[in-house]
Design brief:
The protein has 567 residues and is α/β, with parallel strands linked by helices. It is 28% helix and 22% strand. Among the domains are: 87-109 and 132-389, Alpha-Beta Barrel (TIM Barrel), CATH 3.20.20; 479-564, Immunoglobulin-like (Sandwich). The termini are far apart.
Length: 567
């Protein structure tokens, strides 16, 4: 792609870290002739005109009713559709993201967990026009209880008093919202929500120890990954397994932690009612959490691989590409295990349909750079919302425009194309109301009143690099060589397995036929696991796997443990 002068100046700033202001376009811009979907939910305007002055929308409406200011630059959008700039409600900023997000029409990123000092620096530099890319709103570091995984980008608290102090520090640092993680307990969450709500900011959670019902009663405002829903709807024994021990990985379990086949559908209405009454939003990132299970996965995977075949994206780290493409947690899974996971996914779709029908707020997010490719995944999520959840295309568009702006308290500035709001918009070929896949057909991106250059450049560099490669040290994909003993007698108790292999970490967890075992880390090549009595009730071969949580991580090859008849 030919390099524009503005882009060349921006790139000079990026490459050499000059303290330079990105040159703002002072000209008036008019976009006319396209169909306008303003994000409010109102019917589209078939022949619209949008006037941008500085970084604000000066006028918007039918072309016949809006005058073209003298000297304005006019952009012809006939045959195209004008939309608000897209907001990805779940991502984690990395230095290689800006071109990918902007080129896919994402003008705002909700960063749901990062190094505090780093991401606040990115937020401020971008807001000041000194760093090119999407605007950023962030939680900074998350807050987790001591029952969660230890991470350099999270604050670990031991009790409610420490949780309160951590929340107060987040507020002092002027984060846009607070996120709690897997290890948070009810009393700790209450302490966090009280501080956050007093400061006028929301609290979202990536849950494990708490289920959705418990978290709602403790004051949480949003459920990331649709977390805690399945734990609130399965039998008690399964809930204990999902909530699990520290380091468990609900996405890698064959039965599914996020999408669990044993969710009781008769309990759906009561939980939906509670979440809607408490105004708890859900951000499910279905494409991320159901990789390999959603019916569109093969198509999405091909779309992603084709994108990253572009040599101009060679600056994207290989380890991240491997994570986006892999479905390691499904390797070696039996047909029965896959079917349970699919059944759980289908039940979650039913739950989300009920939630939306009852007036619940649904947000679209990718969860990049976890197991989702930044850029295309947001569009894939919208497609799944329409095809699988049953949203109308208009509702789906709002999950990536108005809904996240309103939830994160930015609705006065963003989310819809209305007079006085920030000029963030995209122009796409075709009509997304006829086919939601048309949101991918990006023709023009304007962010903060500036026409943004799209496409990818091999020379792209970003001086705002993270201090470490991951929130936690990236986990390897484990491999099991042997287990000992590999035979036990039906009905026996107290059997301790020694597992030898590679890639084991203190967060590794041993699973047998969908049940997590009490796991002890000995070394990177050895684990020990206590076999539960229930595993020894039957007779036959049981598949044993080791699961490492994200980042990277995954599920090992299966090794079979034999339960024999008693003599």
């Amino acid at each position: 792609m030919k390099l524009s002068l503005a882009s060349a100046l921006v790139t000079t700033c990026l490459l050499f870290s000059f303290d330079c202001q990105v040159i703002a376009q002072s000209e008036l811009i008019v976009i006319e002739g396209g169909a306008l979907i303003d994000g409010t939910g109102r019917p589209p305007v078939s022949d619209a005109r949008v006037v941008i002055e500085g970084n604000r929308i000066k006028a918007v409406g039918p072309r016949a009713n809006v005058q073209v200011p003298a000297g304005a630059r006019v952009i012809d959008a006939r045959g195209k559709t004008i939309l608000p700039g897209l907001i990805d409600a779940h991502g984690h900023y990395r230095e290689f993201l800006p071109e990918l997000l902007i080129s896919h029409g994402t003008t705002t990123l909700i960063d749901t967990g990062n190094y505090m000092d780093y991401v606040l620096a990115v937020r401020e530099a971008t807001a000041a026009g000194k760093l090119w890319g999407p605007r950023v709103f962030t939680t900074g570091s998350g807050i987790t209880g001591s029952g969660g995984g230890v991470s350099r980008d999270r604050v670990v608290v031991k009790d409610a008093a420490e949780a309160k102090a951590a929340a107060e520090e987040h507020v002092r640092r002027k984060v846009d919202f607070i996120k709690v993680y897997e290890g948070i307990t009810s009393d700790q969450l209450k302490a966090v929500t009280e501080v956050a709500h007093a400061a006028g900011i929301p609290v979202v959670g990536h849950l494990r120890i708490l289920d959705a019902r418990e978290a709602a009663l403790a004051g949480i405002d949003g459920l990331i990954h649709a977390g805690g829903i399945s734990a609130a709807l399965v039998p008690e024994s399964e809930a204990k397994s999902i909530k699990g021990a520290a380091g468990s990985n609900p996405w890698g379990t064959p039965g599914g932690g996020v999408f669990h086949s044993q969710m009781d559908t008769s309990e759906f209405d009561d939980l939906v009612r509670l979440l809607v009454e408490r105004r708890v939003m859900i951000q499910p990132d279905l494409v991320h959490s159901a990789k390999g299970v959603i019916k569109q996965w093969d198509k999405f995977d091909l779309e992603n691989r084709r994108l990253f075949d572009d040599p101009n994206l060679d600056y994207v780290p290989q380890k991240d590409r491997e994570r986006w493409f892999r479905t390691a947690f499904l390797k070696g899974a039996t047909p029965q295990e896959l079917e349970r996971r699919r059944a759980g996914y289908e039940k979650m779709l039913v739950f989300l349909k009920k939630f939306v029908a009852a007036g619940g707020l649904l947000l679209a997010g990718s969860d990049f750079v976890g197991d989702a490719a930044p850029g295309p995944t947001l569009h894939q999520e919208l497609e799944v919302f329409v095809d699988d959840v049953g949203l109308t295309p208009m509702q789906a568009i709002q999950t990536a425009t108005k809904n996240p702006a309103d939830f994160y308290l930015k609705g006065k500035q963003l989310g819809t194309l209305e007079v006085g709001k920030l000029a963030d918009l995209v122009v796409v070929r075709g009509d997304p109301l006829q086919d939601i896949r048309n949101t991918r057909n990006i023709e023009l991106v304007i962010k903060d009143g500036q026409v943004m250059e799209t496409g990818y450049h091999a020379w792209y560099a970003n001086p705002y690099r993270r201090p470490f490669s991951g929130g936690r040290d990236d986990h390897p994909i484990p491999f099991v060589n042997t287990i000992s003993p590999y035979v036990a007698t039906q009905g026996s108790s107290g059997v301790v397995l020694t597992i030898h292999g590679t890639g084991f970490t203190p967060d590794s967890l041993v699973w047998v036929e969908g049940t997590s075992l009490k796991t002890t880390f000995v070394s990177p090549t050895e684990l020990r696991a206590q076999v539960t009595d229930v595993s020894l009730k039957g007779v036959g071969a049981l598949a044993l796997r080791v699961v490492n949580p994200p980042p990277i991580g995954g599920t090992s090859n299966p090794v079979y443990f034999l339960v024999k008849h008693p003599q």
